[in-house]
Write a structure and sequence with these properties.
Layout: E1 2-3, E2 11-13, H1 19-31, E3 33-37, E4 44-48, E5 52-58, E6 65-72
């Protein structure tokens, strides 16, 4: 699935991510990011750039995007969002 937004769209940050991470996510979504749906949670997706994977929620009601978590793409472990489990075992 591809998610594309307007670059000026506000993305709500739930966990105080860096400005650099927010800008990277905004750019990905403006360009049309390939999104992997979370098979356990409706309307949650993972999108990635070369360095970071972002876990987002897209509201089906108003299209609002919430950044839930972000982790380095090469890392074997990742910070777990409260209540989030993608079904993959963390090392």
């Amino acid at each position: 699935m591809v998610i594309r937004t307007q670059e000026s769209l506000k993305i709500e940050d739930l966990r105080n991510h860096s400005g650099e991470q927010m800008a990277a996510l905004r750019g990905l979504l403006a360009a049309g990011a390939l999104a992997q749906p979370d098979t356990h949670r409706s309307d949650f997706f993972e999108v990635s750039d070369a360095a970071t994977t972002f876990y987002i929620y897209v509201s089906p009601v108003n299209g609002r995007i919430l950044l839930v978590a972000a982790w380095p793409k090469e890392s074997a472990t990742r910070p777990e969002a409260a209540g989030h489990s993608s079904g993959r075992a963390a090392a």
